[in-house]
Specification:
The complex is a heterodimer of chains A (about 170) and B (about 425).
Chain A (H helix, E strand, L loop, with lengths): L1 E8 L6 H4 L10 H6 L9 H5 L3 E5 L11 H9 L1 E6 L4 H9 L4 E3 L12 E5 L4 E4 L4 E4 L5 H9 L2 H9 L4
Parallel strand pairs in A: 1-2, 2-3, 3-4
Antiparallel strand pairs in A: 1-5, 5-6, 6-7
Chain B lengths: L2 H9 L10 E5 L2 E5 L3 H11 L10 E4 L9 H17 L4 E2 L7 H7 L8 E4 L13 E4 L2 H10 L1 E5 L3 E7 L8 H12 L8 E5 L1 H4 L3 H9 L8 E4 L3 H8 L19 E6 L6 E3 L7 E3 H4 L6 E4 L1 H4 L2 H11 L9 E4 L4 H9 L2 H8 L2 E2 L20 E4 L15 E4 L2 H10 L5 H7 L2
Parallel strand pairs in B: 2-3, 2-5, 3-4, 5-6, 8-9, 8-11, 9-10, 14-15, 14-17, 15-16, 17-18
Antiparallel strand pairs in B: 1-7, 12-13
Classes of the chains: A alpha/beta (about 170), B alpha/beta (about 425).
C-alpha cells in the first residue's frame, strides 16, 4: 500500500484527551468527532487535515485513554497514516483496528517538517521525504496487520473470515 | 516463565511463550463501560454475528456519565441496556447497582487469579492486583472479542519491581506509584508488563495493590501484575465460588529489568501539571493555592482512601474558597462509608459527596474546572484539559495529601499538616 500526503508534525506524549476531549465522546458520528480532532492541541487541525495528511509525531503518541474515538477522529479528519517515534499500545491497536495505518520509526520526528511531501510504503516500512530527498525505514508491519489494514479494518476483516454467520 | 508469560501461555494453549511472540489467546472476561460500550456494540452489529460468544463472560458497567447528564449520554446508556436485554447478559451494572467499572469488576468477583481479562478502558490493568493478566483494548477490538472470545496479543517483556520497607504515617501506595512513574517516565514501560513483588507488596491490602497496578498504564505498560498470595485468595474466595488457577513466577523467570525499591524513607509525592511523570515531593510544591480538591476515581476512591481522608477531615473545615468533592468508587464503598460514619465526618467538614461515578476524573460529567483554576486530585491523569478548561492545572496526590490540602487551602504535605494541627 502506497500512501502520500503533506506532513503535519507534533511533539512527544500527544495524549488522547488532546486528540479528542472527553466532552465530545457522547457522539458515535465519526464526522462530528473529526470536526474536533486534535482540538486540545491545534484548533486549526481539522482544516489542515481536510485534503489528506500524514501525521508525524514524537514519542508515546496516543498515550492515555482507550477511547477509540481518538483514531476515528484523526482518520475521518483526513489523516492517511500516523508515523511516530513510538506509540502508546492501545492507540496503536485501535488505529489498526479501525483501518488507520500506523508506523513506528525511531527518531523520525526530528527529520520532518510541517508541509513536507511524504510517501509511505506499508509493506516494507519505507518512508520517503520527497521535499528533502531522504528515505527512512520504519519497523515493518507483520502480514496479519497488513491484511487487517488492506481489508479496511478489523470489522471488515472479520466479516470476511466469519462470513457474516452467527 | 514469569506470571504474565504463564497466563498468556495457558490462554493460548501453549506450553511456553516468549516476549515478542504473538499469540491468539482465549479471553476469560471482557468489560465495557458507557464510553466504550456503545461503540463496541455498534461494531459488533456490523460484523453480522447474532449472539455474543459467552454471555457469562461479558460485564457492562455504566460509570462515566451517570446518571445521564445529557440526552446524548442517555441515548448511549439506552444502547447498552437494550443490548444486554437482547443478548441476555446477566452482568449489567446500572445506576445504583455498581460504581466505577474497575472497582465493580474486582468487588463482584469477576476477576480471578490466572485469568486473561480485557476491558475497553485503559485502567483495566488494575486487575493485576489479584494476579490476573488484564489489559485495556478499544471498542472495535472488543466487538471482535464479543464475537469470537479471542484476541491476538504480543507477549510483553516484563520489568520486576521489588519493594521492601515500611511506609511512614500518611505515606501510601499512591506515593509509591507516583514515585515510580516519575522515575521511569510516561513512556518508560510501553508494551511491557510490570510485576510488583517483595515484602512491602505482600503486606499491602488489595486496595493498595489496585492503586499500584492501576497507574502502570501511565508508564505505557500493558499491565501491572502481582503474584496471588493469601491476601488475594481470601479476597477472591469471599467474592466468587468460581475456581481459578494459581500461577506464579518461576525463580529463574526472565525479566528485561529488575528494580529494587525501599519505601522506608519515601515521602509524599505529587505529579505536577501537565504530565503524570512530572513528579516531585509534596514538600517541594507546598503553598500552591487550590480551588478544588477531588478524592475518588478508580485509583483512590476505595474505603481505605476515604478512611484516611476522614481521619484528617475529622473535626475540621474545608478551607473557604475550596471545593472538596468526594466520590466513593462503588455502591459497596459508599454503603460502608455511610455505615461507619465516614461520610458524616466528611459532610460536617464541608465536603460535597457524590454518588459512585468516574465523575470529576473523567472531566465530562461533573466537577469541571474553569480557566486558571487549580485542582489537587487522587485520580490518575493530569493532562491538559482533562478536567475541563485547558487553562486549568491538575496535581495528582494521595488521599491524605488531598484531604490535608483541602483543609489548608493550599498544597501541603499531610505530615506537616498533622504537626501544624490546622
Amino acid at each position: 500500500m502506497r500512501i502520500q500526503g503533506l506532513a503535519i508534525v507534533y511533539g512527544d506524549n500527544v495524549n488522547t484527551d488532546l486528540i479528542i476531549p472527553s466532552k465530545y465522546l457522547t457522539t458515535l458520528d465519526p464526522m462530528e468527532l473529526a470536526s474536533h480532532a486534535m482540538e486540545g492541541l491545534d484548533r486549526d487541525f481539522a482544516k489542515k487535515a481536510e485534503k489528506g495528511v500524514i501525521l508525524v509525531a514524537g514519542r508515546n503518541f496516543g498515550c492515555g485513554s482507550s477511547r477509540e474515538q481518538a483514531p476515528i477522529a484523526l482518520k475521518y479528519a483526513g489523516v492517511r497514516c500516523v508515523i511516530a517515534d513510538s506509540f502508546a499500545r492501545i492507540f496503536y491497536r485501535n488505529a489498526i483496528n479501525i483501518g488507520l495505518p500506523v508506523l513506528e520509526c525511531q527518531g523520525i520526528s526530528g527529520h520532518i517538517d510541517d508541509g513536507d511531501i511524504l510517501e509511505v510504503y506499508l509493506e516494507d516500512g519505507r518512508i520517503i521525504n520527497r521535499s528533502k530527498n531522504e528515505t527512512f525505514t520504519a519497523i515493518p508491519l507483520p502480514d496479519f496487520i497488513l491484511q487487517i489494514l488492506s481489508d479496511g479494518g478489523l470489522i471488515e476483516h472479520l466479516k470476511k473470515r466469519m462470513g457474516g454467520k452467527g | 516463565m514469569n506470571i504474565s508469560e504463564k497466563i498468556l501461555a495457558a490462554a493460548s494453549g501453549k506450553d511456553q511463550v516468549k516476549p515478542g511472540e504473538i499469540v491468539e489467546a482465549k479471553v476469560d472476561m471482557a468489560m465495557v463501560n458507557d464510553i466504550t460500550g456503545p461503540l463496541a456494540i455498534q461494531a459488533f452489529r456490523k460484523i453480522g454475528v447474532k449472539k455474543v460468544w459467552d454471555k457469562e463472560k461479558i460485564v457492562m458497567v455504566l460509570d462515566h456519565q451517570v446518571p445521564a447528564d445529557t440526552t446524548k449520554s442517555a441515548e448511549l446508556h439506552k444502547i447498552m441496556r437494550e443490548f444486554a436485554k437482547e443478548q441476555g447478559l446477566p452482568f449489567l451494572y446500572d445506576v445504583g447497582f455498581g460504581g466505577i467499572c474497575h472497582q465493580v469488576m474486582v468487588e463482584k468477583g469477576h476477576v480471578r487469579p490466572g485469568e486473561l481479562i480485557v476491558g475497553a478502558d485503559s485502567h483495566t490493568c488494575t486487575y493485576g492486583a489479584l494476579g490476573a493478566f488484564a489489559t485495556g483494548i478499544g471498542s472495535t477490538e472488543m466487538a471482535a472479542v464479543f464475537a469470537t472470545g479471542k484476541l491476538w496479543l504480543r507477549v510483553p517483556s516484563s520489568i520486576r519491581i521489588n519493594v521492601k520497607g515500611r511506609f511512614k504515617r500518611f505515606v501510601t501506595p499512591k506515593d509509591l506509584i507516583l514515585h515510580l512513574v516519575g522515575n521511569l517516565g510516561s513512556d518508560g514501560a510501553i508494551y511491557k508488563a510490570i510485576e510488583f513483588a517483595g515484602p512491602t507488596i505482600t503486606s499491602m491490602s488489595v486496595g493498595g495493590r489496585m492503586t499500584l497496578c492501576n497507574m502502570t498504564v501511565e508508564m505505557g505498560a500493558k499491565t501491572g501484575i502481582i503474584e496471588p498470595d493469601e491476601t488475594t485468595f481470601a479476597y477472591v474466595e469471599a467474592r466468587t465460588d468460581k475456581s481459578f488457577m494459581i500461577l506464579g513466577s518461576d525463580s529463574d523467570a526472565k525479566y528485561e529489568k529488575k528494580i529494587e525499591m525501599d519505601v522506608d524513607d519515601l515521602e509524599p509525592q505529587i505529579a505536577c501539571p501537565h504530565s503524570v511523570d512530572n513528579v516531585k515531593k509534596v514538600r517541594e510544591v507546598e503553598g500552591v493555592e487550590i480551588d478544588q480538591a477531588f478524592i475518588g476515581s478508580c485509583t483512590n476512591g476505595r474505603l481505605e482512601d476515604l478512611e484516611i481522608a476522614a481521619e484528617i477531615l475529622k473535626g475540621r473545615k474545608v478551607s473557604r474558597g475550596v471545593r472538596l468533592i468526594i466520590t466513593p468508587a462503588s455502591q459497596e464503598v459508599y454503603m460502608h462509608a455511610l455505615q461507619w460514619g465516614i461520610l458524616e465526618t466528611m459532610v460536617k467538614a464541608g465536603a460535597y459527596i457524590t454518588s459512585p461515578t468516574c465523575g470529576a476524573c473523567f472531566g465530562g460529567h461533573m466537577g469541571l474546572l474553569a480557566n486558571g483554576e487549580v485542582c489537587i486530585s487522587t485520580s490518575n491523569r493530569n493532562f491538559v484539559g482533562r478536567m475541563g478548561s485547558p487553562d486549568a492545572k491538575i496535581y495528582l496526590a494521595s488521599p491524605a495529601t488531598v484531604a490535608a490540602s483541602a483543609i489548608a487551602g493550599k498544597i501541603i504535605d499531610p505530615r506537616d499538616f498533622w504537626e501544624a494541627k490546622y
